[in-house]
Amino acid sequence: QVQLVESGGGLVQAGGSLRLSCAASGRTFSDYNIGWFRQSPGKERETVAAISWNGADKYAASSVEGRFTISRDNAKNTVSLQMNSLKPEDTGVYYCNYVHWSTKTWLHDSWGQGTQVTVSS
To answer: Pick from 27, 35, 39, 44: CA 20 to 30 A from residue 88's CA?
Structure first.
């Protein structure tokens, strides 16, 4: 299984932007649908965005649609999440993982360390 490593989080003021990166180590992950998920304090883990294996199809949760953009570069084995107009409710730990395209849920219950995003008001 290809390991996925998240990076790019940080502390930002409301209205600011961050760009998260998900890098694959080991074999290429260009055959896989990939998603970004977040765990916010006191809430269950939720799907934020997802992208199909070739980048042709994208999904964004209604709470982030129009603000977050997912993209991938299979040549570099990376999936990115550009987050604009950040809100305090976007605060949480962000993870990338393989995704079930039909349900937009994670395919494997195995998680990396994630990257912390904190949005101050």
So the answer is: 35
